[in-house]
Write a structure and sequence with these properties.
Distance between the termini: 37 Å
Oligomer: single chain
Radius of gyration: 24 Å
Order of helices and strands: HHHHH
Helix content: 55-70%
Low-confidence stretches: none
Shape: elongated
Number of strands: 0
Length: 164
C-alpha cells in the first residue's frame, strides 16, 4: 500500500520545529486592465445614452419620473438575468468576464440610476409631497429587488441542468 499524500504540506513534518517553508504565492493577475476599463467605459456610455433616450421619450407625469423608474426596474431585472446566465455558463473569465463588464457593470450600470432616484425623491419631498416621495423611493427599491429576483429566477430556469 502506497503512503497517503501529505494533506497539509505547508505544515512542518516535525511538530517540534517552528520552521515552516511555504512557497510564495504566484502573483495575482490584475483585474483592472486597460481593456477591462474600456469595456466598462463603452458599456457605461451606451447605457447612459439609452437612459437619456428613454427620458426624452417618456416624460414625467404626476410628479413621477416614469423613465427613471422604468430604467431602474428593467435594469434590475436585466442585471439579475445577465449575471445568473453568466454564472451558470462557467467561471468568470474570458468572454464571460468581458460580457459582465461590458453589459453588467458598464451598460446596465449606466442605464440604471439610483442617484437620479434619490434626487427625484428629494425634489418630491421638497415640493411638499412626502408620501409620493416615499412611495416612489421605497417602491422603486422594493420592486427593483423583486425584479432582480425575477431575472435571477428566469436565468436559473433556463439552465435546470446546472441547478446549484
Amino acid at each position: 500500500m502506497a503512503p497517503a499524500p501529505d494533506a497539509a504540506p505547508e505544515l512542518p513534518s516535525d511538530p517540534d520545529t517552528d520552521v515552516v517553508e511555504v512557497p510564495p504565492a504566484p502573483p495575482a493577475r490584475a483585474l483592472v486592465t486597460p481593456a477591462n476599463l474600456a469595456l466598462v467605459f463603452v458599456g457605461g456610455t451606451l447605457g447612459t445614452a439609452a437612459r437619456e433616450a428613454l427620458t426624452l421619450l417618456i416624460p414625467a407625469a404626476g410628479g413621477i419620473p416614469w423613465a427613471v423608474l422604468l430604467a431602474n426596474l428593467v435594469g434590475a431585472f436585466a442585471l439579475g438575468f445577465l449575471l445568473e446566465e453568466l454564472v451558470r455558463r462557467g467561471p468568470d473569465h474570458g468572454i464571460r468576464r468581458s460580457l459582465r463588464l461590458l453589459l453588467g457593470t458598464g451598460f446596465l450600470g449606466g442605464f440604471t440610476t439610483y442617484s437620479a432616484l434619490a434626487t427625484d425623491a428629494a425634489l418630491l419631498f421638497g415640493s411638499g409631497d412626502g408620501w409620493l416621495a416615499t412611495l416612489y423611493g421605497l417602491g422603486t427599491v422594493l420592486v427593483g429587488a423583486g425584479a432582480t429576483f425575477a431575472g435571477i429566477l428566469l436565468g436559473s430556469l433556463r439552465h435546470p441542468e446546472a441547478a446549484q
